[in-house]
Specification:
single chain; 325 residues; alpha/beta; Rossmann fold; Helicase, Ruva Protein, domain 3; 3 domains; two-stranded parallel sheet; 16 helices; 57% helix
Length: 325
């Protein structure tokens, strides 16, 4: 293939297809010479001269253009590259790599003798299957399907992020006659995703520890960059559960089992809501009696428009009342 275009956000696949192309060229031509250019700064004449000139060792050339979309935007480059694609050099292979890419006549010309590969993150199910296959092939360690599912939930489907996590897990769990990465290992060794972290705000609020709640909020909002909308929803979700738990108490329901299923509470959270917070609040208590409705409306507006205010410390009010934030 005289021309190969690799584009898309999944950089792991960029590297993987580059590796496969180099292996294929070496298998066909023996040793090759590789030249890499930054498409945002290199000129058309430099690239074409490298493609059309013979190497010192008379070996096959691989010419790589990174940021290829920027290269193609330069004045006159696209028409010139379309002409080159119509009659490419057989002594050189052109590899164009880019996160973003605008298809056109150049792609049509490339596809006649080369290929265009789009690199997108897979879906959840495909990412889980990839993790299982990848860790077994590369590290000779089995990955439990439930562990793969949790890993994807926490990391996402980006292969560039999943691969180093798999290496870390394989290194920690790759001992014994039949090494296996379990769900428990993922819980212990892989940090929470930002979406999961947002729900950590509920625990200190339930405990009634104002200082710890503000400290947790500060960490989640300013350090972990948990989405402000999710932080707001986590607090609203807790308020809803507390109100419903108080109603159940007043209706004569008692014990953790009465709360667990309708409120979707499990473990310590069920006991805390039932035995402490809900009893203190009562069903007639609502957030609006403690916080001005104007402030609630403003926070709701800011959460939905991405304009949440900074926490107290970042606002430069270290001596203020924590409830001000």
């Amino acid at each position: 293939m005289p021309i190969v275009i690799v584009h898309g956000p999944e950089l792991f696949l960029h590297a993987e297809y580059t590796r496969r192309l180099i292996e294929s060229l070496k298998e066909t031509h023996g040793e090759i010479e590789q030249f890499t250019f930054d498409g945002s700064t290199t000129s058309l004449s430099v690239v074409l001269d490298e493609l059309r000139s013979y190497g010192l060792m008379q070996s096959h050339k691989l010419v790589v253009i990174d940021n290829a979309s920027e290269f193609m935007k330069a004045a006159g480059n696209r028409p010139a590259m379309e002409r080159y694609a119509a009659d490419p050099m057989s002594e050189a292979t052109l590899l164009m790599r880019s996160r973003e890419w605008r298809p056109g006549n150049f792609d049509k010309a490339v596809k006649k003798t080369g290929t265009v590969i789009k690199c997108e993150p897979p879906g959840d199910a495909a990412a889980e299957q990839w993790c299982v296959a990848r860790v077994e092939k590369v590290h000779q360690v089995r990955l439990d399907p439930s562990a793969a599912r949790l890993l994807v939930e926490r990391i996402g489907t980006s292969l560039s992020r999943l691969d180093p996590e798999l290496s870390k897990l394989a290194s920690a769990c790759g001992t014994g006659a039949e090494p296996v990465i379990t769900r428990e290992a993922v819980i212990e060794l892989v940090g929470l995703g930002r979406e999961e972290q947002a729900w950590l705000i509920q625990e200190p609020i339930l405990a009634g520890n104002r200082a710890e709640a503000i400290k947790t909020l500060q960490s989640l909002y300013d350090v972990s960059r948990a989405p402000s909308v999710l932080l707001m929803w986590a607090c609203l979700d807790l308020a809803r559960k507390l109100n419903e738990a108080a109603l159940l108490l007043e209706q004569g329901h008692a014990g953790c089992r009465a709360f667990a299923r309708p409120l979707q509470l499990w473990g310590p959270a069920a006991r805390t809501v039932a035995s402490a917070a809900a009893k203190r609040l009562g069903s007639q208590t609502n957030l609006g009696s403690h916080v001005p409705r104007s402030l609630l409306s403003e926070l709701d507006r800011r959460a939905k428009t991405g304009r949440m205010p900074p926490t107290v410390r970042r606002a430069g009010l270290p001596g203020g009342d924590p409830t001000d934030s």
